[in-house]
């Protein structure tokens, strides 16, 4: 990927047509990014081929469908280029609409223009044989008392403050502008952090979190890898939380509240959280999703042992006598649902015996093991 390029959509089963004629690129993956349209061939028996098209050359998209013998062909996207060339993408496994949506979004944002501006701002290399006055468009400023002394420093700080205020006002015109300015705002916050005291840093950090710019993983920044990157970030976050949590097993409902609170205003949906948790085990992350027999889902360390928590329950029974789910929940500061699940697991291991009486369901130590 190029600098500042973000993957948007990956769609397999795509063929390329030049106008209405088939090409040798009959089966491959289409990848849309903020800067390019990529094609990676998956044809059997032929070496992998890759093509790319800069989105800056596209002039128009269309979704007309050609019919042959009254039978509709696969959904297609027509690509009209500024030079007059015309191509079609044929989606044989579906997915045309999401690719079309991502292309239109990328064409609206015109990320390549921002990238070109950044390149143009890079100073040209200095040629020793060229006079100093023609080496660079940057002109040497003449000395002025206006920029000297304490007064000059204060005026410079005032000008910088005005520039910063202008950037903030521009960034907050609407949500789209905020997203486009997000990287610039983060860079600005980092530069300010280096100049501030510890107390000012803390205040600035709280302010940035309240704006939702504390580098959380978002769909806009991660693109097609959103749930994978979210799973990694969530795993890192829970690694610092679970060791202090009783039993090191936390229900997803509690994880959702805790994690969203830490993200500030960049909230995620319950569905996104669950999809990220499902990916944790395939990715080999140190935190993984667990589903109990009752259907309760929770996060726990990969090397978690239920035996340790069962031993803690046995110690509690030695102290207070027979226990119920409410007693375990109160003593270990965990939810009633999780307390009941842990008691049932200890019973399955043969460490506890149940007593279902008029007082409710109580659990005793399994004295039959001592006989």
Automatic annotation (TrEMBL):
Please give the name of this protein: Vacuolar protein-sorting-associated protein 36
Q: Which Pfam families match?
A: EAP30, Vps36_ESCRT-II
Q: Which SUPFAM superfamilies match?
A: PH domain-like (SSF50729), Winged helix' DNA-binding domain (SSF46785)
Entry-linked PANTHER family: VACUOLAR PROTEIN-SORTING-ASSOCIATED PROTEIN 36
Q: According to the UniProt record, where is the region Disordered?
A: 112-141
Species this chain originates from: Vannella robusta
Family assignment from sequence similarity: Belongs to the VPS36 family.
Described purpose of this protein according to its UniProt entry: Component of the ESCRT-II complex (endosomal sorting complex required for transport II), which is required for multivesicular body (MVB) formation and sorting of endosomal cargo proteins into MVBs.
Its quaternary organisation is: Component of the endosomal sorting complex required for transport II (ESCRT-II).
> Which InterPro entries did the record assign?
GLUE_dom, PH-like_dom_sf, Snf8/Vps36, Vps36, WH-like_DNA-bd_sf, WH_DNA-bd_sf
- Where is this protein chiefly located? cytoplasm
GO MF, one term, reads:
phosphatidylinositol-3-phosphate binding
Q: Where in the cell is it found?
A: Cytoplasm; Endosome
UniProt key word Iron: no
**Chain ranges of the GLUE N-terminal domain:** 1-119
List the record's Gene Ontology CC terms alphabetically. Answer: ESCRT II complex; late endosome membrane
- Gene Ontology annotations of biological process type: protein transport to vacuole involved in ubiquitin-dependent protein catabolic process via the multivesicular body sorting pathway
Query: Keywords, A to Z?
Result: Cytoplasm, Endosome, Protein transport, Transport
């Amino acid at each position: 990927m190029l600098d500042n390029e973000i993957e948007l959509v990956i769609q397999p089963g795509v063929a390329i047509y030049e106008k209405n004629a088939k090409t040798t690129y009959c089966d491959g993956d289409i990848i849309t990014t903020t800067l390019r349209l990529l094609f990676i061939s998956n044809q059997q028996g032929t070496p992998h081929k890759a093509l790319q098209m800069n989105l800056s050359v596209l002039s128009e998209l269309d979704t007309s469908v050609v019919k042959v013998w009254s039978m509709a062909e696969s959904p297609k996207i027509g690509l009209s280029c500024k030079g007059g060339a015309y191509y079609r993408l044929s989606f044989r496994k579906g997915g045309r609409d999401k690719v079309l949506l991502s292309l239109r979004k990328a064409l609206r944002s015109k990320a390549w223009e921002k990238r070109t501006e950044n390149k143009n701002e890079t100073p040209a290399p200095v040629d020793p044989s060229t006079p100093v006055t023609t080496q660079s468009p940057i002109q040497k400023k003449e000395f002025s008392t206006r920029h000297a002394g304490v007064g000059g420093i204060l005026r410079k700080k005032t000008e910088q403050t005005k520039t910063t205020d202008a950037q903030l006002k521009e960034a907050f015109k609407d949500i789209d502008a905020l997203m486009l300015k997000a990287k610039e705002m983060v860079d600005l916050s980092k530069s300010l952090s280096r100049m501030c005291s510890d107390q000012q840093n803390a205040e600035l950090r709280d302010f940035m979190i309240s704006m939702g710019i504390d580098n959380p993983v978002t769909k806009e920044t991660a693109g097609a890898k959103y749930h994978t990157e979210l799973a990694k970030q969530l795993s890192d976050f829970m690694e610092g939380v679970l060791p202090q949590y009783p039993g090191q097993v936390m229900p997803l409902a509690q994880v959702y509240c805790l994690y969203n609170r830490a993200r500030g205003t960049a909230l995620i949906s319950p569905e996104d959280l669950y999809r990220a948790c499902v990916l944790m085990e395939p990715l080999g992350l140190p935190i993984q999703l667990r589903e109990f027999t009752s259907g309760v889902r929770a996060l726990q360390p990969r090397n978690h042992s239920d035996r340790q928590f069962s031993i803690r329950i046995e110690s509690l029974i030695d102290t207070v006598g027979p226990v119920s789910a409410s007693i375990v929940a109160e003593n270990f500061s965990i939810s009633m649902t999780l307390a009941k699940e842990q008691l049932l697991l200890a019973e399955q291991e043969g460490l506890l015996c149940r007593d279902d009486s008029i007082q409710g369901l109580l659990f005793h130590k399994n004295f039959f093991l001592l006989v």
